[in-house]
Design brief:
With 819 residues, the protein is an all-alpha fold. Helix content is 72%, strand content 1%. Strand 1 and strand 2 form a beta hairpin. About 1% of the residues have low confidence. InterPro entries: E_motif, PPR_At4g14850-like_plant, PPR_rpt, TPR-like_helical_dom_sf.
């Protein structure tokens, strides 16, 4: 730009020397040149020295001010043009095309209307250039229905810009379906959408019903029209696919792109983050660093939350070091805020505080990030101190601040809760959903739910919200009966309400209630989301209800085609895998695993665990090898599953190999679960002495699970002495667990040690231990039947017992002995 400016000044100098500078065409050309290279002072100087000013020269100076975003100066220059020149200079259609967008930027609707009146008086209203400017101005001033559409209809010769103006105006005002209708009218009228049209229409597709299909159609049009060669169009397509959850489609576009700019990289990184693909986002960031493009603040504020979600402190620290090497990035407030949040999530409060102090221009987000970091780590005194500093900074709290403060107030007592409640009321934040939930939750924790309800019932228009907040408060504090009462009395229920009840029924093993609630949810016209499906899948797993799992799976496939995005949710895919496995359908679990895109640690862990539980050790080890080939580092959970697989298959040598690799190869300190698997492995193979010695050599005290595993194997192999040693430890750490006494008693009985049996029974009687009633259930004709020992309440009990007696008789007596 500097080179062009010097060259332009040289030409200007030549024109002055040659006496051409005073000629009107030369003056206008000089003004236009200076305006285009952003030399507005030089433009004004040439304009000031002009002896004769015509409409073109005025338009050039107006365009210069508009281009420099000096909108008020442009409006002042328009008045000067109109009033100081009499009738010699008219406001032309070009003038209107320049000044009407200025009115739109300033939201000067009345000025725009005055100009519209002048346009009508001049008779240029139907001109395409002027009409397009008026449509855009009215749309940006939120006058779409009455003015923008009417003005659009009045344009006699519409062009592509006319259609682009009305489509973007309608969509910007929230009329998304109408914008799509206009787009189809445009195509039907024979107009060829250009790259600006595509960029305007694609963001709408992710916001409307069946938008995924609309996006596909527009993508196809872009390919046929060669518009996909425009990088802005490709970036818009990338954003669309990410917003509808089609990560695979977005990755395909990204891989096919021959030219990528920073917007492209940032879009995919933020898209990964938005969809929970945090590891993929970090990997893509590494690829960006290898390219010729340098990350900016947008990149960093997208990638740091991914590191926080992964609790990957090392990766986040490397990014922080990169920021320190780029001082311009470190000075940006948004980057500092992201660092504070990252360190807070990783429980590194000293580093978070250091980054917070280093932010030169702290904004509300900065204070909220620091307060949230302290609240998440329960540093209440430090939180109050930072809050006092915030009040001195003259920055006003928002809803996020209040909800964070209320977390602290819950621990500081009811008085502080009331103070926060009062402030939120005075600040006008009481009607915000998150604030309302936080206040009710705080009162609930302080055991004054009735007080909170009577106070908040005065909040107009928030009945469902209050009910939901009360419902959540009751659920969080164990009052299921109160929650059910609130739920039954609610006049309106949203998806949050249904999901809350589904989750609590699932967590408390009320599976029948969960199934019934899920059925009612759908009959009342509410469409389940990912949370609903994952809750009901958990319930299905508890009772091995594979038919309902398949129905949920079918729903996710249909929902993905209906633009709900469920079919592309990786976490939901893993939940389906887990549900199939726990229902005994390992084949379906394997199929689900195969279709999960970009498998991460969680997906591999679920599949390996499924194979391990089903005794398919070879498949588990093969899947583990596939995971290692993708350079995913195993964690202690996967290694536990691998050892469990070896245990179920009796693969002692393989088990020892993997156990030794935990620390040597993967750098993980063996956990109690790993030791427990090894004890189980040795015990299953009858190597009880080796298992006992292994326990004694452990660097930490063995827990009840390990001793219980050894005791169970002693029962299988009839080993009394080692069983007695294991039982003695269990009686010490789990004195009230009747199962341990029963197993030891059975070991004594199997070996004819009746004195031992009597001793164990005396211990049980002394501690008043009673064996709980056995329980089983079965699904017959879409109904679950539950049977509990000594329970005689089943309506078909006589028929069931009759059949049982018949089966028992047939088992006891061979055919030749029956009479």
């Amino acid at each position: 730009m500097l080179c062009y400016a010097l060259f332009g000044k040289a030409i200007h100098g030549f024109a002055v020397k040659a006496s051409y500078a005073a000629m009107l065409p030369v003056e206008k050309a000089l003004m236009d040149m200076y305006s285009r290279i952003d030399a507005l002072d030089d433009t004004c100087q040439v304009f000031k020295n002009m002896c004769q000013k015509d409409s073109v020269s005025w338009n050039v100076i107006l365009a210069g001010f508009a281009r420099a975003k000096l909108y008020m100066e442009a409006m002042g220059m328009l008045r000067l043009m109109h009033f100081s020149t009499g009738t010699k200079v008219k406001l032309t259609s070009v003038t209107m095309a320049i000044i009407l967008p200025v009115c739109a930027k300033l939201k000067f609707l009345e000025n725009g209307r005055c100009l519209h009146a002048y346009i009508i008086k001049r008779g240029i209203e139907s001109e395409t250039l002027v009409g397009n400017a008026l449509v855009s101005m009215y749309a940006k001033c939120s006058r779409v229905i009455n003015d923008a559409l009417s003005m659009f209809d009045m344009i006699s010769r519409k062009d592509v810009i006319s259609w682009n103006s009305i489509i973007s105006g309608v969509s910007d005002n929230g009329f998304f379906a109408e914008a799509l209708v206009l787009f189809y009218h445009m195509v039907s009228a024979g107009f060829m959408p250009n790259y600006a049209t595509i960029i305007s229409i694609l963001p709408i597709c992710s916001l409307v019903e069946n938008g995924w299909f609309c996006g596909k159609e527009i993508h196809g049009y872009a390919l046929r029209s060669k518009l996909d060669e425009e990088i802005s169009v490709i970036n818009a397509l990338l954003i669309h696919y990410l917003k509808v959850g089609d990560i695979i489609g977005a990755e395909y576009i990204f891989q096919k792109m021959q030219i990528r700019d920073l917007v492209t990289w940032n879009t995919l990184i933020s898209g990964y983050a938005m969809n929970g693909w945090f590891s993929e986002a970090v990997n893509l960031f590494h690829n960006l660093l290898k390219s010729d493009i340098k990350p900016d603040s947008v990149t960093l504020i997208s990638i740091l939350p991914c590191c926080a979600q992964l609790l990957d402190f090392d990766e986040g620290k490397k990014i922080h070091d990169y920021i320190l090497l780029s001082p311009s990035l470190g000075l940006e407030t948004s980057v500092g805020n992201a660092l504070v949040s990252f360190y807070g999530k990783c429980k590194k409060l000293d580093e978070a505080a250091h980054c917070f102090q280093g932010i030169h221009k702290k904004d509300l987000v900065s204070w909220n990030a620091m307060l949230t970091a302290l609240a998440d780590n329960e540093q209440w005194e430090k939180l109050i101190k930072v809050l006092n500093q915030m009040s001195c900074s003259q920055i006003q709290p928002d809803s996020i601040t209040i909800t964070t403060i209320l977390q602290a107030c819950t621990y500081l007592g009811i008085i502080k809760v009331r103070e926060a409640h009062g402030y939120s009321f005075r600040a006008g934040l009481i009607s915000h959903p998150n604030v309302l939930h936080a206040i009710l939750n705080a009162y609930a924790k302080c055991r004054v739910i009735n007080c909170s309800l009577s106070t908040l019932e005065n909040t107009a228009g928030k009945i469902t919200l209050i009910d939901n907040a009360m419902l959540l408060g009751s659920l969080k504090h164990g009052s299921l009966k109160d929650a059910e009462k609130i739920f039954d009395l609610m006049q309106e229920r949203d998806l949050t309400t249904w999901n809350s009840m589904l989750q609590v029924y699932t967590q408390h093993d009320f599976t029948e209630r969960a199934f019934e609630l899920f059925r009612v949810l759908q009959t009342e016209g509410t469409r389940p989301d990912t949370v609903s499906i994952m809750s009901i899948l958990t319930a299905c797993s508890r009772v091995a209800f594979v038919r309902l799992v398949k129905q949920c799976h079918g729903h996710t496939i249909r929902a993905s085609l209906g633009n709900m995005g469920l079919g592309f949710d990786k976490h939901l895919g893993v939940a389906l895998l887990d549900a199939y496995s726990k229902c005994g359908s390992i084949k379906d679990a394997g199929k689900q695993f195969q279709i999960i895109p970009n498998k991460d640690l969680i997906a591999f862990s679920a599949m390996i665990q499924a194979y391990a539980v089903h005794g398919m050790a070879e498949e588990a080890l093969q899947t583990f090898s596939e995971m290692l080939e993708t350079c995913i580092k195993p964690d202690h959970v996967i290694l536990t599953s691998i050892l469990s697989a070896c245990s179920h298959a009796g693969m002692v040598d393989q088990g020892w190999k993997y156990f030794k690799s935990i620390k040597k190869v993967y750098g993980i300190e063996p956990a109690m679960e790993h030791y427990s698997c090894m004890v189980d492995l040795l015990s299953r193979r009858g190597q009880l002495k080796e298992a006992y010695d292994f326990i004694k050599d452990m660097p930490c005290e063995a827990n009840a699970s390990i001793w219980g595993s050894l005791l169970g194997s002693c029962k299988i192999h009839g080993e009394v002495e080692i069983g007695r040693l294991a039982a003695d430890h269990l009686f010490g750490v789990e004195g009230s667990n009747i199962g341990n006494y029963v197993v030891m008693s059975n070991i004594y009985a199997a070996n004819g040690r009746w004195d031992g049996v009597e001793q164990v029974r005396r211990m049980m009687k002394g501690k008043d231990l009673k064996k709980p009633a056995g329980c089983s259930w079965i699904e017959v004709q879409r109904t679950n039947h539950v049977f509990v020992a000594t329970d005689l309440s089943h309506p078909q009990r006589p028929l069931i017992y009759s059949i049982l007696r018949s089966l028992d008789w047939h088992l006891k007596y061979p055919l030749n002995q029956r009479t």
